[in-house]
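Support request from a user on the community tier.

User writes: "When I paste my structure tokens into the form, the page sometimes reloads and wipes my input. The last time it worked, I copied everything first. Here is what I submitted, just in case something in the input itself triggers the reload:"
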């Protein structure tokens, strides 16, 4: 897939909620007009449903690619998910990418009246799902997201896009660098064809330079504001300063694919403009 080998920046925007069809259409069109490369939807109960939301977006856009960030693989049977993927890829004129993860929120499994498997069993199922989809949709790029050794090995050896959470798996000075080194070792010769993704968890509002850190703090409640602002996934400063941080991520780590939440769409568009 030539678009992966090029290693140009790609930018995604994630839609978690929308209040109306009009609101969704407006966000999808604005994302495309502002130059975002990917429109994605997460997979959580109580939030937007990925397939109908992406289908609606496909109907009102022409260029922006569509993805899930990420599907809870354990919620689906491979053949049924494959059917939906095939339909959405057709309806979007082959703009689909598929994001997969193990699923981790026990309460959502319980609400869906599904058993909550062990961590190992969820990784086994993710591997099974990834293999099935690659066999039946070889042209559709697959992203695998996670942080643990087994998921990162699966991503390195079978995915097209590796989504890094930046989670501290081992006690090291730079957990992101450690995870990328792990992926590089697991991928071997195919590492150069992989695209590395990072979710940006905080971006300043338009006209401001300091972001709201509440989302970032949920996963790191013991860190100070100064420590949170220094995290790889947090942007602050002017659009140029934020662009410089993303450029340094590409130079130091090889990360070229960044995803932000849709409430940051306008200010992050200024960052994208600095990088293109």
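"...and here is what came back when it finally went through:"
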């Amino acid at each position: 897939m030539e678009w992966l080998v090029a290693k140009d920046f790609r930018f995604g925007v994630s839609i978690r909620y929308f209040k109306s069809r009009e609101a969704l259409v407006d966000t999808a069109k604005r994302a495309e007009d502002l130059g975002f490369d990917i429109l994605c939807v997460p997979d959580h109960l109580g939030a937007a449903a990925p397939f109908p939301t992406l289908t609606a977006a496909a109907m009102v856009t022409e260029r922006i690619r569509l993805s899930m960030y990420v599907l809870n693989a354990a919620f689906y049977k491979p053949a049924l998910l494959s059917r939906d993927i095939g339909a959405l890829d057709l309806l979007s004129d082959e703009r689909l990418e598929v994001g997969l993860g193990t699923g981790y929120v026990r309460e959502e499994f319980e609400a869906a009246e599904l058993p909550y498997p062990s961590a190992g069993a969820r990784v086994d199922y993710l591997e099974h799902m990834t293999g099935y989809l690659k066999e039946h949709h070889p042209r559709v790029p697959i992203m695998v997201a996670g942080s643990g050794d087994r998921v990162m090995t699966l991503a390195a050896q079978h995915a097209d896009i590796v989504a890094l959470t930046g989670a501290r798996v081992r006690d090291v000075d730079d957990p992101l660098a450690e995870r990328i080194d792990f992926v590089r070792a697991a991928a071997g010769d195919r590492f150069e064809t992989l695209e590395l993704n990072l979710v940006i968890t905080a971006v300043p509002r338009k006209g401001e330079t300091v972001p709201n850190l509440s989302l970032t703090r949920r996963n790191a409640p013991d860190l100070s504001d100064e420590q949170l602002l220094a995290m790889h996934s947090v942007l602050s400063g002017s659009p140029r300063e934020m662009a410089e941080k993303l450029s340094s991520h590409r130079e130091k780590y090889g990360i070229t694919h960044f995803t932000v939440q849709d409430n940051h769409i306008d200010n992050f568009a200024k960052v994208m403009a600095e990088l293109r």
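Agent notes: The reload is a front-end session timeout and is unrelated to the input. The longest helix spans residues 119-136. The radius of gyration is 18 Å. Escalated to web team.
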